[in-house]
Amino acid sequence: MTYSDFTLTSPLSDLEHTSAPLLTVTIVWHPDRARIGEQFVGGLGGDAIELNRFVPLFMRPGGAGLALGHGGISRQPLRLVRGADDGVAMTLPASPMVVEVNGQVVKEGIRFSAEQIGAGQILTLGRAVVLCLHWMHRLPMPNAVPGLAGVGSASIGVREQIHMVARASLPVLLLGETGTGKEIAARAIHALGGRVDAPLVAVNMAALGEATAAAELFGAAAGALPGVVDAREGLFAQADGGTLFLDEIGNAPAAVQPMLLRVIEGGAYRPVGAAQDRRSSARLVAASDQDLDAATFNRALLHRLEGFVIRMPPLRTRREDIGVLILDLLRRQDIDAELPAGLVAELAAHDWPGNVRQLAHVLQRAALVLKEGTLPTLAQLVRGARAPLEEAPAPAPAMKPEASGPRRRPSALSDADVLAAMAGNDWNIQAAAQALGISRPSLYKLLEDHPDIRRAETIPESDIARAMVDCAGDVERCAALLKTPAEALRRRWRLLRSE
């Protein structure tokens, strides 16, 4: 046990040890991007969740509930039953809908252990909608923090701790693996506090040399440094009244660690070569991906830095956040890419040693591949990536993988191939693209040039109305009858009924 185990973090972090978790299903990916991040929060042991096109209702905090609704989702339910030991038994629906777990097709019911649910299980329904089955240790709440997207317990807890400590004057220590967003959290603490109009000054402590670290941090009097005639202002002076972010604090040169302790305790410091102390009211936020309890780090300094500790969770422990993170990263990086559900499922099941930073880089590579009209796989995008079932044990022996089709070039596909794929996948474009091994944009181009497939907007209103009557309002059956994509037909039918 380390000293950090006894320092102030937030009482919220103890909830997972004192409260029974709630079985939750989060929408990781959906053809309607507005649905990504919506959740259904289930109950305790013995409760059953039935998933089909119409139930349950997924929602955001304070919002209205909506069913999954997608035409590729079966009307027959997929059942999730939680046992007394918190294991969850999954029974497949009595329908031809393809069900995948962590990227692998399953043909029989399986059982997840409580630990597997804790790690997050990725379910893909109808090759179109990606869900995450996981525990929630607190109810969803709208506590947004810029740059820190996420809908799971860990993300909610981190954001609440940031809101809690932002207006305090305590030093904050951010701990977490590389790429988990420690600098973003530091900037959020500054932005949400009372110092938002004052400067935020950041320094990478690993980049400071032993000889110059003290002058960089605390400044130097005129003539105190070789070759420097004028007085030099340090980072503490620059951050006076604002926030000083000490990144990679574990790499702080040993000589300046006692100096840092002094300024934290009383605000006083002495520039190199100066005769008098100066003072700084800068609020300190430090970050590290190291074990600071190691003997090489000044323990008195560590105790002072741990005024409030926030532990940034690794991405592999919050798979339910992958969808909203992808949307946020695509927006921030100004990437316009239509990611296939199969790729998103692979991304969600990956362990991400580089965390959110690595995910951002992979999305950039994926966008480049998709622009070429080919469908990328995780193995092509991430060096050393393994198949999902190699990364974690299979939930049960009944889990049977089904080989996926080979990746193909759109130019190699015939009109008959495209027509067969659409007919065999309920006229769902995403599912048909996955079956053909091409991207969704590539399939759109093939559909535009296809002699037998009709564009929904060009079909006469009378033909659609007649087909809807013949098919009793079933859009997928109507799409098959009219030979047009189901999503476009559904939009056209809604528009016609609203006129």
UniProtKB/TrEMBL annotation:
Question: From which domain of life does this come?
Answer: Bacteria
* Transcription regulation is among the record's keywords: yes
Keywords from the named record: ATP-binding, DNA-binding, Nucleotide-binding, Transcription, Transcription regulation
State the residue spans of region: Disordered.
389-411
UniProt entry tagged with the keyword Transcription:
yes
Q: Which InterPro entries match?
A: AAA+_ATPase, AAA_lid_NorR, Homeodomain-like_sf, HTH_Fis, P-loop_NTPase, Sigma_54_int, Sigma_54_int_dom_ATP-bd_2, Sigma_54_int_dom_CS
Sigma-54 factor interaction domain span = 148-368
Output compositional bias ranges, type Low complexity. Answer: 389-403
Which Pfam families does the entry mention?
Answer: AAA_lid_14, HTH_8, Sigma54_activat
What's the name of the protein?
Sigma 54-interacting transcriptional regulator
Please tell me the species this chain comes from. Answer: Massilia phyllostachyos
